[in-house]
Design a protein that fits this description.
Elements lengths: L17 H8 L1 H27 L7 H13 L2 H4 L4 H9 L15 H13 L2 H22 L12 H83 L4 H26 L20 H10 L4 E6 L6 H21 L6 E6 L5 E7 L14 H12 L3 E6 L6 E7 L12
Parallel strand pairs: 1-2
Antiparallel strand pairs: 2-3, 3-5, 4-5
EC number: 2.7.13.3
Protein name: histidine kinase
Enzyme class: transferase
Length: about 425
């Protein structure tokens, strides 16, 4: 169980009543008062009664022994909250001298033990304890009563059984009522703690999921844009001396791509601002934007062909996923593939699941070492899994080229996705 307690907003209200709050704060004082007003009189009455009954006899040692037994049993008052069973056993020892005293004050101590069992242990333990002390004490009185005086209640088991039984039943009734209320409050507090932990865990999971979504979308925008910009810049540098106009046009494309990337990042990060900052909302890319995406890669020299069949459902999350898959596949082909003569993009929306494939025939044995952390494919896998689909990637059996293939259900399992 976590040591972190719930926050201040889940604290219970103050208990009603000044007296109840006082005793709740001073439990040890209550135990000392019980020992003072119940244990001490029982000890003194036992001593006085036995001294008088054994005066002039050879049993002068018995009053001191019985008094020590009763006094020692008062220890049970101080452990009844933490070890109610042990406290009950200790308090029951006070019944040993009961058959020999006039008023039998010791019988109150096991009654407190039964009450403590009901409050601090369980109702079942209290019933078992009450039945045990009633049966054993009655048998003990029946066996010892011939040795007692005729003035004691314990001299007659027929009197002891009902009178002591009523005392135990009263203790049971009060103890069960108090114990049930105590356990009910403990259950409410424990439930409040669980709700607080679940609330914090849900908030943490939501924050982690949101960070992952933002990181995934930023990668899609930044990685793609930077790859295009690097390729354009390299082409511009190569053509700067032989074809300055072409180099200038390439640099203008670099600037346009950079501006698009900045606009996309502002759009995504705008939702993280304060409520007073209105985030710019714009539609996410869809399948209809894929031809323009492919034209951009063709301008960079990548031999891309597009084949499509059927219509992709209009679900925004599904449309965005198809676009991101094609974008990631083409970006990786541009960045890592060596000398591809073809890059095929296939979108087959006739069946269920629909298929999205990006396939190139780059030279075998010459893959460019990845400089990334694999976040692109990891983000795609998370996006596709959220929709209930699957994603596979890897080289062909011949070792040449790279294939990225996704299968997406036409009715996504979790279609809702926040727009950046």
């Amino acid at each position: 169980m976590s040591s972190v307690e719930p926050q201040d907003d889940l604290r219970l209200p103050r208990q009603p009543g000044v007296v109840r709050r006082f005793w709740a704060r001073h439990e040890r004082l209550a135990d000392w008062l019980i020992a003072l007003f119940w244990g001490l009189p029982a000890t003194l009455i036992t001593l006085a009664t036995l001294v008088r009954s054994t005066e002039g006899t050879a049993h002068a040692w018995w009053p001191l022994t019985a008094t020590l037994i009763v006094a020692a049993s008062c220890i049970g008052f101080f452990v009844r909250r933490t070890r109610p069973i042990l406290a009950f056993a200790i308090l029951c020892a006070a019944l040993i001298p009961a058959p020999f005293t006039d008023a039998s004050p010791e019988q109150v101590l096991p009654v407190v033990g039964v009450y403590s069992l009901a409050v601090y242990r369980s109702n079942a333990a209290a019933w078992i304890g009450a039945a045990a002390v009633e049966g054993v004490s009655t048998l003990y009185v029946w066996l010892i009563s011939p040795l007692g005086t005729n003035q004691t209640l314990a001299h007659s088991p027929a009197q002891w059984f009902p009178v002591y039984g009523i005392e135990l039943l009263v203790a049971l009734a009060i103890g069960i009522t108090v114990g049930n209320r105590r356990r009910y409050l403990d259950a409410l507090i424990d439930r409040a703690h669980q709700l607080a932990r679940e609330r914090d865990q849900q908030a943490l999971l939501a924050a982690v999921a949101e960070r992952a979504r933002i990181a995934r979308d930023m990668h899609d925008v930044v990685s793609h844009s930077l790859t295009v910009m690097v390729t354009l810049a390299e082409g511009s540098a190569a053509a700067a001396e032989t074809d300055p106009s072409r180099a200038a046009a390439a640099m203008r494309q670099v600037a346009d791509t950079g501006r698009e990337a900045l606009a996309g990042m502002r759009q995504m990060l705008g939702v993280l601002g304060s409520e007073s900052e209105a985030a710019t909302l714009a539609p996410q890319p869809t399948v209809a934007d894929i031809p323009r995406l492919i034209e951009r890669f063709r301008d960079l020299g990548l031999p891309v062909t597009l084949s499509s069949a059927g219509d992709v459902p209009a679900e925004p999350a599904l449309q965005l996923a198809v676009y991101r898959i094609v974008q990631e596949g083409l970006t990786n082909a541009l960045r890592y593939s060596h000398g591809p003569t073809r890059v095929d993009v296939l979108i087959d929306a006739d069946g269920d699941p629909l298929a999205v494939v990006v396939d190139d025939d780059g030279l075998p044995g010459m893959p460019t070492v990845s400089v990334g952390a694999g976040r692109g494919l990891l983000g795609l896998t998370e996006r596709v899994s959220t929709l209930g689909g699957t994603l596979a990637s890897g080289h062909h059996d011949s070792g040449a080229g790279w294939r990225l293939a996704a299968a997406l259900p036409r009715n996504p399992a979790h279609p809702a996705e926040e727009t950046a």
